[in-house]
Amino acid sequence: MDEDPFLGWGLKPVELADQAVLNPYFNSLSEPLSDYTFSQLYTWRNSLRILWKEIAGHLCVFANGTGDLTLLMPPIGDTGGDAALKAAFELMDDYNANHGVPDRSRIEYCSEELLRRFNRAALKVTPMGADYVYEVKRMIDLAGGDLASKRQAKNRFIRNYRHRAEPYCAADHLKDCLALLDNWKIHQDAQHLEEPNANAIKRSKESIATALCLESAQTLGMQGMVVYVQDPASSSAQTGQWSLRAFTFGEVLGRQQSSITIEKTDLEVRGLAQFVFSEFCQKYWGHLPLVNVGDDWGLESLAWTKQSYRPVKMLRKFVMRPQAIATSPTGIEIAPIVATEAA
């Protein structure tokens, strides 16, 4: 019996060696989403069971994290996208029919840039969220009345805590970062007991992806930063105990953006989150005009936090499904009514 359930469909798991093959596809995009990078595919490969295949000269990235087979993003390539998309849907339909979920084929994260490349008449398009994008200079200075509370929190942290920030190095920081990640997840789960179980599953998958990022960041070309904080009860800068209280990771995204993919902080240290975000932008991302912090996962509390930093742009995302074709009693196909996305 074949141990690889995807071998018959020609799908391969994402490996580090695939970086040279996949990166040119992502680099061809003028305004990529935060989801459209090799590092994201690799770090989430276990949580979402990510697979890939080249079809008709296009990169097709699939996910099997919920038992069905979906496209994580539309096919990426130069021309002939509709042919690649048709073949990808046929592959998904075949897999999903064989696994008892025949109506689950879909594309989960489609950008506006990629949406324009396909025949909309054959697709049902539904909005599903957006990446939050900020002006990086504002995130460094936190200037203006609408960011006053962020600026005050950052300054309060600087006044109240001895601290130091340094570039992430797995050899020096991995163990302490994994301990902080475990504590973060325990705290978040305890604080959100009333939420749907699906949110806890999301946090669990995120923790798995974050741990893989911590192990492989250097190989993936990601920039990381950690922050150490000294125990405020200590009276001496020389003898006080220091501990790692925050880490964050990011990467260049397209020509205009950086993308901050991970930020984990000790939530008991007031103002630390605001300091980490601003400091990371200042130290590593000031050469790019925009910073992308991803979407809000449909979580109300996360949406409120990301909106409070006043995004200058929202990169919309869509779910795409094949448009159903109705058939008359005589067997003649009836043209579908094409759905349009909300404004």
Question: What would your notes on this structure say?
Answer:
With 343 residues, the chain is α+β, with helices and mostly antiparallel strands. The protein has 2 domains: 112 residues, 3-Layer(aba) Sandwich (Aminopeptidase); 185 residues, 3-Layer(aba) Sandwich (Aminopeptidase), CATH 3.40.630. The protein is 36% helix and 25% strand. An 8-stranded mixed sheet has the order 5-12-6-11-10-9-8-7, sandwiched between helices. A 4-stranded antiparallel sheet has the order 1-2-3-4, covered by helices on one side. It is globular and about 65 Å long. The relative contact order is 0.16.
Could you tell me the number of beta strands? 14
The protein's oligomeric status is: single chain
Give the DSSP E fraction (strand runs of 2 or more residues). 15-25%
CATH superfamily label of the largest domain: Gcn5-related N-acetyltransferase (GNAT)
The Cα radius of gyration reads 22 Å
Q: What order do the helices and strands follow? A: EHHEEEHEHEHHEHHEEEHEHEEE
Q: What's the architecture of the largest domain in CATH terms?
A: 3-Layer(aba) Sandwich
Overall mean pLDDT: 91
Name of the CATH class of the largest domain: Alpha Beta
The name of the CATH topology of the largest domain is: Aminopeptidase
- If helices are DSSP runs of H or I spanning 4 or more residues, what is the number of helices? 10
> The biggest beta sheet, please?
8 strands, mixed
Class derived from helix and strand content: alpha+beta
Report helical residue fraction: 25-40%
* Domain tally: 2
- Span from first to last CA? 50 Å
